[in-house]
Write a structure and sequence with these properties.
mainly alpha; three-stranded antiparallel sheet; two-stranded parallel ribbon; 12 helices; 59% helix; globular
Length: 277
């Protein structure tokens, strides 16, 4: 696991050079440490080559997009996993590639990778509640739903945003603010937080720890992610590692809402750490 984390860390060191698809694919090594990333990448490259052979040399972006949509959704059969939406495998790209089922962000990453390989600079949008994609063309921007490939109108987007704004009135920004390009680091964090919610809810602490290790790598200044890594360590009965993270959190956030609860946990962790020594 350490080797895989070191590899992930090497991929995400510099924001401007993060290989998004490769880094996202490597997340699955937490659940499958022996996963052959190269073989999965080659499978996607083969799909892209099939699509490229069909494209006229003078194909416009809109023509390429139509062919990509037909290829991805009709021929390859990718779709949302409506029957098992909360399966962690929906976030593991090699599983999505095999089953042809996923959630918006994982489908988007595969779609974007294929699109980029045929000359379409498709970008991700970290839209509230449902990851989206966009492509700039001469007439403007096309916003796409990665579950279906359908182009979304302004009215569609405003309708999707309405429930979020109703619950977050203080974030009542214009629609354009929610359609900004998501940077690779932001996309990876969103993927990992999806998995984090699932593994914490299931109390699958070993896989939760792997997710937290990656989140700490991506967000080294986010002390809350260190705290949550500490909680995963505590539940795995690794008290020394848990103490390091939780004590660091309390030092930097002494008045946090959860500080009192965490301080009550410290004596138990210290006692467990002494017994191990």
């Amino acid at each position: 696991m350490i080797k895989n984390l070191d590899y992930f860390a090497s991929l995400v060191q510099q924001d401007e050079t993060i290989p998004l698809f490769e880094a996202a694919l490597s997340i699955a090594q937490d659940a499958n440490p022996q996963l052959d990333l190269g073989a999965t990448q080659m499978e996607v490259d083969t799909m892209a080559a099939r699509l490229r052979r069909r494209l006229p040399s003078d194909a416009s972006h809109v023509q390429k997009l139509r062919l990509l949509n037909h290829f991805f959704y009709r021929e390859l059969g990718f779709a949302g996993n409506v029957n098992n939406f909360y399966d962690p495998e929906n976030s593991y790209l090699h599983c999505v590639l095999s089953s042809r089922r996923g959630i918006p962000i994982s489908l988007a990453l595969l779609y974007m990778e294929l699109g980029n390989q045929v000359g379409l600079e498709i970008k991700g949008i970290s839209f509230p509640g449902h990851f989206l994609m966009k492509l700039s063309v001469q007439s403007g921007e096309i916003v796409l739903d990665p579950v279906s490939g359908i182009s979304l109108s302004r009215e569609d987007l405003e309708e999707r945003l309405e429930p979020y704004l109703a619950q977050n009135a203080e974030r009542n920004a214009p629609l354009s603010a929610y359609l900004q390009e998501a940077e690779p680091r932001e996309i990876l964090v969103r993927m990992l937080r999806n998995l984090k919610a699932l593994y914490f809810e299931r109390a699958d602490w070993e896989l939760a720890l792997g997710v937290q290790q990656r989140l700490v790598i991506l967000l080294p200044e986010d002390i809350a992610e260190r705290r949550d890594r500490g909680m995963a360590y505590a539940n795995l009965e690794c008290p020394q590692a848990a103490l390091r993270d939780i004590e660091d959190y309390l030092e930097r956030r002494p008045h946090a809402q959860d500080a009192s609860m965490l301080r009550q946990l410290l004596p138990k962790l210290r006692d467990a750490a002494r017994r191990l020594n």
